[in-house]
Amino acid sequence: MMATGEPKAKKIKLEEKEKEKEISQNALFGMGNPLLDICAVVDKDFLDKYGLKPNDQILAEDKHKEMFEEIVKKFKVEYHAGGATQNSVKVAQWMIQKPHKVATFFGCIGKDRFGEILKEKAEESHVDAHYYEQSEEPTGTCAACITGDNRSLVANLAAANCYKKDKHLDLEENWKLVEKAEVYYIAGFFLTVSLESILKVAKHASENNKIFSLNLSAPFICQVFKESLMKVMPYVDVLFGNETEAATFAREQGFETKDIEEIAKKAQNLPKVNKKRQRIVVFTQGKEGTVMTKGDKVETFPVIETDQSEIVDTNGAGDAFVGGFLSELVQDKSLEQCIRAGHYAANVIIRHAGCTFPEKPDFH
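Predicted structure:
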């Protein structure tokens, strides 16, 4: 009697496994600033000329306008489809592989050559990109000035700045894609563009007990856009950031601590609308361990050790970490598994130029 039951039990187990793998299209939604990355290894003189810090991210001012032309003339450049959120959803899609178009992306581009390149790149990476196209401003660009292990990013948002809620997000066919999603991710950079779009998506997630995640993205977001950031914070289920952003955030919020674990705890305990989910805070620290709040504890997870000689470019490592994390989160995997996937993706990215990766992941 027993023996005949065994294969059946095995079959049920297999079916459960199969079921677990099914993931629907458009389950992950990202919205942000689509930028064409112009990456180049530059020298210190170039940074000094434009008053850039070796490791920073800023928005282009008038004094940087010539820089975009100069970098193309002076150095060997590579073009990549970029922008923080787009990078992360692209990495998540790469980690998931099939089905295609698990990740949706919204953002604004220009009707120009760079816009066409972005559309091609999104297509190649199997992301379901729905861009709002307009002709007032050209497609945004981001100069990634690489010196050694450091990268200084200067973003000229241009078209990315022109995203309009009423012209794109509110359209029925686009909003349907938002409703299809289970997990939402927006980088803090988008706070500079369309707070009302972020709030509409964040409220939808909160009201439907879906997961809304946000990245602090840059020290200037925590300072200059503090008010907008704090309007969104009550809807944030997962908050990402790195050690520099965490420190700035803590200072701006008057947390009175420089201890990253303490900062994570305090950020976790900020007011929250959807009480069914406790906020998760995840802070990366480059090659130091990643800090994550879990329940009432804070844990630190070591990153994968990499030989210094294998590191090509740390540009995109943070975005890749988030992409890896989201790829597992959207499949309901454990938080530990999300962190492992984040570390794996970041580890792959730092061995390639820009936010690029091999054809298939080797993650188990």
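Summary: The mean pLDDT is 91.
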